[in-house]
Amino acid sequence: MILRAALLLVSIFVADIAPAATYRVDESGSFPQQSSTQMRWRQIAPSRGGDNAVEGSTRVNLRLNLAPWLNRNGRLFLVLPEQPVTPVKVSWTTQGRLLPGQLVSGQRALVYVGPIVSPLLEETLVLKMEADGTRLSSAQRLQFHFEIDID
Amino acid sequence: MPRSHSSHAALCAAPLLAFVLPVNAFTVSITPGTPTVYLQVGVGAFSGTLQGGGTPGVNPTVNVVSVTVPAAQVGTGTPQTMSTNSSAANSFWDNRVFCSPPAQLYVGGFYRRPGGGSGGGSALLTAAVPSVLSNGSGGTISFSQISWASSGLGDAGAQPFPSGTFVAGSTQTIGSIPRNEWAESCHTFSYANTAVVPAGTYTGTVVYTLAAP
Predict the structure, then answer these.
(1) Tens digits of per-residue pLDDT, B150-191?
(2) Which of residues 28-47 of B touch A (CB under 8 A)?
(3) Is residue B207 part of a domain?
(4) Which of A16, A18, A54, A144 is 20 to 30 A away from residue B33, measured at CA?
(5) Which domain CATH number covers A98?
(6) pTM assigned to the model
(7) Using an 8 Å Cβ cutoff, are B63 and B43 in contact?
(8) What is this model's ipTM?
(9) Which domain holds residue B62?
(10) Chain B residues close to A14, C-beta within 8 Å
C-alpha cells in the first residue's frame, strides 16, 4: 500500500511539469485573411541599382493553444523554414499581445517572453513579405509555425 | 503489485499525450510579380522618374521625323539629316539628359519578368516598316532611304538599339531588352537622298512594337 501511494505521487508530479525544451505550438485555428498574396515589384521598372524585389502583405488571424504550458515561463518564436526558391524576408506588426519583428526564411524570431497566463492566445499579425522577384517565378507556399521554449 | 504497476503506466501516459498535439502551420501563399513591358519612342509618359518611384503611363503622341530637301539637293546622294518634333531629352530612368532633340529621337523601355535564367530572356523591339513614303499623288520614296545612327549622351558602350537602315516592306528587329533591365538609345535619322522624286510631302508611318515572350 505504501508503494502504490508513492508511485501515484510520482506520476502526478510528472503530469504537472513539462520538461524544459522546445515545443511546436498548436495553431490550428490560425489562418491568413487572403488565400493568396499578390507580390508586386517594389520598383515597377528595373533600376540601375538592380532593385528587383517584390513585396506583398497580408493579415493573419492567430489562435495559439498554449494550454500545455499554462503558468510556465516561456519564449514564443515565429518560425519560417528555409524556402527552396529564394529567401523571403518577413516583417510584421501586431496588436500588442505579441512583439513585432522581422526574420528571413530559415530563422525564428522572438514574439513573446514571459509567463503563459492564458491557455489561448489570439492575435492579428500584418505580415509584409519581400523576395527577389527575379527568382520568384511561381507561387510559393510559406508555412509559418510557432515554437515555444519552456524554462 | 501488477495492478499497481498498471495504474502507474496509465497515469504516466497522460503527460506524454499532452504534448502530442494537432499542429497546423499557417500557410501564406505568395505569387510572383506581374510581367511588364514599357516602350517609349519619342515622347513618353511617366509620373516622375523611375528612381523617384514613378510609374509609366500612356502617351498616344506619334512623333514626326522629317527633313526638307532643298530643290538643288534633290537626288544628289548627299544625305540629309532629319529632325524630330519629339522633345524627349531626359531619360525617365534617372532624369539625366540623354538625347538631343530635335536632332535625336528617344527610343527606350524596360522589360519586367519574374524568374531568372534562360528562356524568355529578352523582349524584342521590332519596327513594322511600309514599303514607301507617299506624297498622295502617286509619288513614292522607298523607306530604305532612311537610316539612323544610334548613340546616347554619356554612353560609351554598344547601344541596345543600334544604328541601322529601314528595310522597306518588312518587320525588322531594332534591338532587344534583357529581362529586368531598362534599355535606351537616341536615334539620329538620315535621308539617303539618292532618288529624284517629284516635289511634295512624302509621309509614312513606322510602328514600333516591344514584345515579350
Answers:
(1) 999 988 889 999 999 999 999 999 999 988 888 999 999 999
(2) 28-34, 36, 38
(3) yes
(4) A144
(5) 2.60.40
(6) 0.75
(7) yes
(8) 0.81
(9) 33-211
(10) 12, 15
